[in-house]
From TrEMBL:
Localization per record: Membrane
Originating species: Saccharothrix coeruleofusca
Any one annotated GO CC term: membrane
Similarity field: Belongs to the MptA/B family.
Protein name stated in the entry: Membrane protein
Family annotation (InterPro entries): MptA/B-like (IPR049829)
A family per Pfam: MptA_B_family
């Protein structure tokens, strides 16, 4: 592809740097603001989603993943929800339905190619309205935050969280250990030293007070979300996607609201650092390749690579971003194989220095390298390779060949790892040759690593979705990402644990929530009617 300046490159086209394409909005001219009727529809969408967030906040008092020794049961009024689990869970699911539907309706005003788009300030205010009620809720959808608290306390007491699990280090009667799910009580921490160093500070502040510890860990996630909101529109503009479209699919995604903000997962911090690192590294990178690299450009690349390495020191999948950043640097230098080697050596040197300093500086050492496979000790059917292993073992039993389930799981997991290595290598090569945008390769590569890995959790989807939100304009992909996010968002129960023989609560809650949602639709039919009709705005696709 001949060298061209940004003004000569169409929106979404692969640039000479492996996908770096500066664009004004959607590449077809600056989008106009919403007209009067559309602004009124946006107000309805905001209120609709905010009501959903408030319902989730109230329902979490009885349906959330509350700590074992919760102060709520003895609290007047607030303790009432704990004695009505079906009602509380119904409130949460009603809120989920409202937020997901509001997000889908908001998408019509953030669609690439539309002549009138929601403004950045309108998108930011909408996001704030939906997030604010969720900041103070009990954790839902997962109990991982209680593992964070226990592992951080282990580090705060001077013990090694990479050698000891909560039960061994803190004791089985410790209040923090009691909140950790049984399957994780004896396992060491699988998280990077930077995250545990932050958790150690939180543990020093809160001690064994669970709810303040949960809140401070949520503040870490909100810091990561702020990074995501900062980086997404900037990266999207570089790669030819309207910034508000990236924010809608990325930061406003229900999976972000439910599993990062409410679920308090450290993916928020790791992904935020990763995206910020990419943006910083590209901050002074010109599009025209082959020109001498300035000291300022090199300095920004080092700062960006340092930030990405810090993300990997929270959760290791973020390290893959260094590979695709290296591809962009190599194409910036001229696109020769020797340029690829130069960029690889530069990023390797930076990442090694930063990681060694992090490990030694935090005092936690390098034990985290040996615990990266801790999650794989749990055999979950949600992981496709593990599910195939269970299927193979079941077939062996059915055919009278004996029980070889463990061997089959090991085999299918190995095949999954080989497969994602091949996929990632292919994506890196295609990005280096300029056939795909590097940021799209990063999203697809992260998706392959996590889907084909030994363990898969619903919120892992965000590792792929957020980078792809900054680089993909294709309507088919956005519809797929939208549908997948909405489906995952509505099917997971909020308790974050088993129902102890009370499985009847789930269908009761879902049926009640569906009826309540239908009643909301009927009561607000005049206001939401325009949102249910096909978008016929000029330029819509």
């Amino acid at each position: 592809m001949a060298d061209r300046y940004p003004s000569d490159v169409a929106a979404g086209e692969v640039g000479t740097d492996g996908g770096l394409v500066m664009a004004d909005r959607d590449g077809t001219g600056r989008a106009a603001p919403l007209d009067g009727p559309e602004r009124r529809q946006l107000d309805v969408i905001r209120r609709w989603g905010t009501v959903g967030a408030l319902l989730m906040a109230v329902g979490s008092l009885g349906a959330g993943a509350a700590p074992v020794f919760s102060p709520l049961p003895g609290t007047p009024v607030l303790g009432l929800f704990g004695r009505m689990p079906s009602v509380a869970m119904g409130l949460v699911w009603t809120g989920i339905f409202l937020i997901v539907s509001a997000w889908l309706w908001l998408g019509r005003f953030a669609r690439p190619g539309r002549q009138r788009l929601v403004s950045r300030s309108q998108m930011d205010r909408t996001l704030m309205m939906w997030i604010t009620p969720l900041v103070f809720v009990l954790p839902m959808f997962s109990r991982d935050v209680y593992s964070y608290l226990a592992q951080s306390q282990i580090a705060a007491t001077g013990q090694d969280p990479y050698e000891l699990g909560p039960a061994s280090a803190l004791g089985v009667d410790n209040i923090l250990t009691k909140n950790v799910p049984n399957i994780w009580r004896e396992t060491p921490a699988p998280y990077g030293p930077l995250f545990l160093a932050m958790g150690r500070v939180i543990a020093g502040i809160t001690g064994d007070h669970v709810l303040p510890g949960v809140f401070l860990h949520r503040l870490l996630v909100l810091l990561g979300l702020a990074m995501i909101v900062w980086a997404l529109p900037r990266l999207a503009r570089r790669f030819g996607v309207p910034p508000v479209s990236a924010l809608w699919l990325g930061a406003a995604n229900p999976l972000v609201l439910f599993h990062l903000v409410v679920g308090v997962h450290n993916e928020g911090l790791a992904i935020g650092l990763m995206l910020v690192g990419l943006e910083l590294a590209l901050r002074r990178m010109p599009l025209r390749p082959g020109t001498p690299m300035t000291r300022e450009e090199l300095a920004w690349i080092v700062v960006g690579a340092t930030t990405i390495t810090m993300a990997a020191a929270v959760k290791i999948p973020a390290a893959l971003a260094l590979g695709f950043l290296g591809v962009m640097i190599a194409r910036r230098l001229g696109g020769r194989f020797v340029d690829l080697l130069k960029s690889a050596l530069l990023l390797l040197a930076v990442s090694v220095v930063v990681m060694v300093c992090t490990c030694l500086g935090t005092g936690l050492g390098f034990g985290w390298v040996q615990t990266l496979d801790v999650a794989g000790t749990v055999k979950s059917w949600m992981s496709p390779p593990t599910a195939l292993g269970f299927l193979g073992g079941g077939l062996g039993l059915a055919l009278g060949l004996g029980n070889h389930t463990e061997a089959m799981i090991e085999l299918t997991r190995l095949l999954g790892q080989v497969t994602y290595v091949v996929i990632v290598t292919t994506l890196l090569w295609k990005a280096f040759r300029g056939r795909i945008k590097a940021v799209n390769g990063l999203g697809a590569g992260l998706g392959a690593v996590l889907v084909l890995g030994p363990v898969l959790q619903p919120w892992y989807v965000l590792w792929a979705a957020l980078p792809l939100a900054t680089g993909v304009l294709a309507k088919r992909f956005r519809l797929f990402a939208c549908g997948t996010s909405a489906f995952i968002a509505v099917i997971l129960p909020p308790t974050g644990s088993a129902f102890d023989g009370r499985a009847y609560i789930v269908p009761q809650a879902v049926i009640g929530a569906a009826l309540a949602f239908a009643l909301c639709l009927f009561a607000a039919r005049k206001q939401i009617g325009p949102l249910l009709r096909r978008d016929t705005a000029p330029g819509s696709t």
